[in-house]
Specification:
Blueprint: E1 2-5, H1 15-19, E2 24-26, E3 33-35, H2 45-54, E4 60-63
Antiparallel strand pairs: 1-4, 2-3
Length: about 60
């Protein structure tokens, strides 16, 4: 799985960081998403999928391999 984020769409809700902190973080200055790992290990697949589903701005996109 490859993770892509559309930073301009992000509304800084932080749900992705709460669900998958190994993959997502937030910028200190404005809270927008920071992608830490665009190809997370398979053990994080469920958390990454949940992060994409709950993102209120639909700023997280997954490319399944």
């Amino acid at each position: 799985m490859k993770v892509e984020v559309d930073v301009p769409k992000c509304v800084a809700s932080g749900q992705c960081v709460l669900i998958a902190p190994e993959v997502f973080d937030q910028r200190d200055e404005d809270g927008l998403v920071v992608l830490l790992d665009e190809t997370p290990p398979p053990g994080l697949d469920d958390a990454v999928r949940e992060s994409a589903m709950v993102c209120p701005a639909a700023a997280i996109h997954l490319v399944e391999s």
